[in-house]
Amino acid sequence: MTLDLIATNVFSVPVLAFALGLLAAAIKADLRLPDAAYQAISIYLLLAIGLKGGVALREADLAEVAAPVAVAIILGVTIPILAFLVLRFLTKLGPVDRGALAAHYGSTSLVTFTAALVFLESLNVSYEGYVATLLAILEIPGILVGLLLAGSMSKNSAGADASSQRRWAESLREVLTGRSVLLLAGGLVMGVLTGPEGFVRVEPFFGGLFTGVLALFLLEMGMLAGRRLGDLRQAGFGLVVFAILFPIVAGVLGIGGGLLAGMSTGGAMVLGVLCASASYIAAPAAVRLALPTANPGITLTASLGMTFPFNLVIGIPLYWGIAQWLAPVLG
Amino acid sequence: MSELSEVTCVVIVAESIVEPRLLDDLVACGVRGWTLTPAQGQGPRNRGVSEIEGGSIRLDVLASDTVVERIWQLLESDYFHDYAVSAWSYPVRVLRTDRYR
């Protein structure tokens, strides 16, 4: 990995906007994206990713997509189990908090994924357009497996009483019908139906403005992540190690799986980023409903305060370097 | 003007993630209406995830003493322990008391 790659990533406008958000949080600046704007931007990003992915999916060969989809499902189940086990050795956390973290790390981060696409596009590296399908697929199983692990290992949270069952039903509904899955899956279907001809008409909005809107979103994420940095002390050394090293392990698994499934180097790198990223939107809501005794201070500090900035600044060029290194071996 | 009567106003401030569940539970307690507004602030435990999605909500509910008693029991058994929820109540005077009983 050359310094040029890191510079290309760090000096892109979205990553610089993230840094500005971190600075704003550090100096306690009076800066905040209005909640309505935040909601609208996240809807825009999800729908745009889904639409573009759907258009690409329409043009893809089913046989070409099948293997990466199967690999994504396997990784979506394996990674949270691995996270749950690794956390047992690295931290003193109980099963509920380990399950909550496994749910976060088993799911994905839309913004990290999007930043990876912007990075590849800046290098003129091609990737399979259907990777958005893999994003939609990987959103769900990781959260469910994490919740199940916490439930099966904890007598308190897995009770068969009515309130526990209700919490699980609400959480399942949140995962399956939440904004992330609905807009991504809906966008994919819209993209498949409308095709390239239909997409051309909305391309200036969903394509041309995309990187600029992403920068605005990352400004807000920088402020949110910056506020979490203050909680690092309570996280403990083991959790810090986990939040930095586990994404690299998961990223390598994703890159390797992608290459073995026949994806291009760029596509495998994107699958690696999906595996390396941790959710901080879909998973926190689902975990909060199903595992109310889990401490969100721990999960959000790890996923949003440490893993997200690491992936955004260092991880993305690192995974690209690893993908280039593994491609001749596994590709 | 008709005479004013006293009912109780219960204010519940909660992380927005519990909104759908809380509204269902309040209806089950006998609540017939409410005012819901976005809220900002911080609680002593700071356990919510609301800073990322949806913020907090403030619910103002006017109800009879019987219903208010059920609301307190509900909050104590299902919400206070696990979620970022604060609540308080005070007497208010209204016209058209039947709307709130």
Topology readout:
The complex is a heterodimer of chains A (331) and B (101).
Chain A (H helix, E strand, L loop, with lengths): L2 H8 L2 H14 L8 H25 L2 H29 L4 H12 L3 H13 L8 H23 L8 H16 L1 H30 L1 H20 L2 H4 L1 H24 L4 H12 L5 H9 L5 H35 L1
Helix pairs in contact in A: 1-15, 2-10, 3-7, 3-9, 3-10, 4-5, 4-7, 4-12, 5-7, 5-15, 6-10, 6-13, 6-15, 7-9, 7-13, 8-14, 10-15, 12-13, 12-15, 13-15
Chain B lengths: L4 E11 L3 H11 L5 E5 L16 E8 L1 H15 L5 E10 L7
Antiparallel strand pairs in B: 1-3, 1-4, 2-3
Could you walk me through the main structural features you see in this protein, from its secondary elements to its overall organization?
The complex is a heterodimer of chains A (331) and B (101). Chain A has 15 helices and no strands. Chain A has 331 residues and is mainly α. In chain A, helix 12 runs antiparallel to helix 13. Chain A is globular. The mean pLDDT of chain B is 88. The two termini of chain B are 20 Å apart. Chain B has 2 helices and 4 strands. Chain B is 26% helix and 34% strand. A 4-stranded antiparallel sheet of chain B has the order 2-3-1-4, with helices on one face. Chain B is α+β, with helices and mostly antiparallel strands and 101 residues long. Chain B has helices at residues 19-29, 65-79, and strands spanning 5-15, 35-39, 56-63, 85-94. Chain A binds chain B through residues 35, 163, 166, 170, 224, 227, 280-281, 284-285, 288-289, 292-293, 295-297, 300, 304, and chain B through 15, 17-18, 20-21, 38, 46-49, 51-55, 78, 82-83.
Short overview:
The complex is a heterodimer of chains A (331) and B (101). By secondary structure, chain A is an all-alpha fold. Chain A has 15 helices and no strands.
Main traits of this protein?
heterodimer, A: 331 residues, mainly alpha, 15 helices, 83% helix, B: 101 residues, alpha+beta, four-stranded antiparallel β-sheet, 2 helices
